[in-house]
Amino acid sequence: MRRKLPSPSMVIALIALAVALSGTAIAAVAVDFARNAGAVDRKSAVSASASKAAAAGKLVATQKRGRNRGRIPGRFISDVMQGGSDDLTGYLSVEDNKNGRVVRLLDISGVGRLNFQCRDQDPAVGKESTQTVVTFNATNAKGVNVSRLLGRNIDRAEDGVVFSAVPGTPVPIINFADSLFQLILQAGDKSVLVMGSSRSNLNRSANAACLVWGASLRIG
Questions:
Q1: pTM for the full model?
Q2: What is the pLDDT of residues 83-99, one digit of tens each?
Q3: What would the DSSP string read from start to end of 137-187?
């Protein structure tokens, strides 16, 4: 039995329907693309000056200018735990029969800094005996709570020393060579753990030197 072909009018109607449906789909895709242009994972971005309510569920741009250029404003992450780490390394040659210069060993923003000095304890000319001196200077206006534990405290099963450091008054951490030291510093919402060691190099010679090294971990 011979099949009946569709009439020309039916063919034209089917073609018109297909074009109409395709056009609608293309338009829908175009609208969706325009709506999400520049988005990441379909999330739009807001400027650094936007409120937290406006930024909810969106990406936040870094600041465009100023000293915090390239950073996300602190109000978006202020209640999120933050931290970081720093290393500390110092090497100073002894100056014969002198206390030597003071150098910065570690600077902790909002808390304080550790300074380092290498002194000669032997009055004989050309014979140098090292004395490593590390001090802490508080920079927080309200002061810093300090817990200090030295290697000798561990050897003698002693407790560490706990005290408060105020700005403008350097406090001693170590004042001899070859020692371990541990500090816990607390100022406001910042807590810092500093662990380090010191030793003498070529002691009692004309080329004696002091070496200090360690690391710090901070929260807040």
A1: 0.64
A2: 889 999 999 999 999 99
A3: EE-STT-EEEEEEEHHHHHTTPPPEEEEE-TT--EEEE-SSSEEEEEEEEE
